[in-house]
Amino acid sequence: MNDRGIVAVVGAGTMGRGIAQVAATAGFTVLLYDARPEAVTAALERIEASLQRARERGRLAQAPEEVLGRIRPVADLAGLASAGWVIEAVPEELELKRRLLAELGAENPRAVLASNTSTLSITALARGVPGPERVLGLHFFNPAPRMPLVEVIPGVETHPEVLGRAVAFVRELGKEPVVAKDRPGFIVNRIARPYYGEALVLAGDGVPFATIDRILRGLGFPMGPFELMDLIGLDVNFAATKSVWEQSFYLSRYRPHPLQAERVAAGWLGQKTGRGFYAYPREPEPEPELPEPHPLAVHLVGGGPLAGILASRLAPTAPEEADLIVDLRVSLGEKAYPEGVPPGRPVLTLAWAHSASLARPRYPEARGVYGFSLVPPYAAGQPMELLAPEGEEVPPWLAGFARALGFTPVVLPDQPGGVAFRILAMLANEAFSALREGLAEAETLDRAMELGTRYPRGPLAWAELFGLPALVAGLRGLKDELGEERYRPDPLLVRRAAVGE
What pLDDT is attached to residue 108? Predict the structure, then answer.
């Protein structure tokens, strides 16, 4: 038997078999148990296929049969008594996991007992377990063989020595550990909630799923929120959302959305059932038709990074010669038709903090007022969202102007903030909330989100690209227009914006 140790994995579903493969690949002997013996048989077949693919793609140096030979099926919990590490990966139900950990603790009085829970309290899971000081969370991400992050979560009673051993164990597995406090959702599932929740709110207000997904992919996210929920499973994602919401005593920013609940009730759980937010197999999306570029002479109002980006792509224009006014000020109260520009010019105004409809009365001298949202990093080709006031339409020349700037125009129903700003601002605000609560250091929070979700950058890094004062102003405007507490800027974000950090 391998002298590096024995790892028991309880639960042979998607996560259990992935964890078993990771441990076996790292050289551990793995004892795999499931209450359904046929699940273990199926898991071994899938692990073998996964190892073969990894070998063919050059990601596995060992022979697949060598790794598979380290995984041993076990018929009952008593067969796990020799393990030094026991990791449960059963469904995300508090009582089920608690009972199982208590049984495992009784069968094996020496092992470290770890839960692969994604949202449940480790302290609550340890209650009633013989030796609760040896219970902690080891949250792997799906697919476990590919995802590099593991959250290590101590409960209230977890012994510091056990925590240190767990961090070292995760590194032995070839993964990157981050230590998180025992809070609802830990780091990744907590901070990631707005990626799904705000997308659902926007969809509920009439923005198509595919449009939201296309905008987020255009910013470098591997998948849009609705595609990702279909991949994860709507039931799994919905359960995680409810868990964080309930454990946070029903804070509005974590509230589940009826659009997801109704699909779960209908059995539309995503790719695994053939239907979720999309139908599967999914038809390829038609490429949107893009207008011809339409350059305009522009007068810019306001500063910030976006002013520099646009100025670099526009020829200098005297105010009286401008065809279009572009107002980059964030707060609605700052918006006004600029002096020195003859009346009757159309206005395109940054809509991070308001809808186009609310902006229109601020410019009585204008010949048409439209909103736009463009977010960092302002890369060529990324989406530029265009909004028209209620009852109006975005004119074709405005989409052509976006193309002339090097961006991809996306026309949306009028929304305060648009899509990208709303979702990114809420992610950043949630990260500041986690930072204020001491969930982890700033670098750890961002690193966890990059590794655990494959976001193109961490939410705190994105906040710095926006500029903290602009982020605060945008969130306050969303709260004013939408009237929901969920958009309140976090106090730490407000303080750091005030002192210029």
Answer: 92
Pairing of strands 149-154, 135-140: antiparallel
Q: Report yes or no: 405 and 398 within 8 Å, Cβ to Cβ.
A: no
Instruction: Answer for the pair 387, 361: CB distance below 8 angstroms, yes or no.
Output: no
Residue 111: phi and psi, rounded to 5, are -70, 155
Yes or no: is domain 298-412 CATH 3.30.830.10? no
C-alpha dist (Å) from residue 265 to 200, 238, 258, 392, 406: 16, 11, 10, 37, 43
Report residue 322 as tokens. 């401008």
Topology of the domain covering 6-182:
Rossmann fold (3.40.50)
Q: Which of 36, 40, 137 is nearest to 92 (CA)?
A: 137
**The pLDDT of residue 286:** 87
| Residue 412 banded pLDDT, cuts 50, 70, 90 | very high
Query: How much is the CA Rg of the chain, to the nearest whole Å?
Result: 26
Residue pair 464/435 in contact (Cβ under 8 Å)? The answer is no
Contact between 71 and 24 (Cβ < 8 Å) = yes
The helix (H) or strand (E) run that includes residue 56 is: helix 37-56
Q: Which residues pair with 270 in a beta bridge?
A: 275
Instruction: Taking residues 471-499, report their average pLDDT.
Output: 98
The answer, yes or no, to whether residue 2 has pLDDT greater than 50, is no
Q: What would the two tokens of residue 48 be?
A: 């073998």
Q: Verify whether residue 139 is a known catalytic residue.
A: yes
Fold classification of 189-273 (topology level): N-(1-d-carboxylethyl)-l-norvaline Dehydrogenase; domain 2 (1.10.1040)
Locate the domains of the chain by residue range. 6-182, 189-273, 298-412
- Classify residue 308 by burial, with Cβ atoms within 10 Å: 0-12, 13-18, 19+: exposed
Tell me the three-class secondary structure of 408-477, residue by residue: EEEEECCCCCCCHHHHHHHHHHHHHHHHHCCCCCHHHHHHHHHHHHCCCCCHHHHHHHHCHHHHHHHHHH
Q: Give tens-digit pLDDT for 282-302.
A: 988 888 889 999 999 999 999
Q: Which residue, among 321, 301, 326, has the nearest Cα to 404 in the 3D structure?
A: 326
Q: What is the mean pLDDT of residues 111-120?
A: 96
Contact criterion met (CB below 8 Å) for 370 and 347: yes
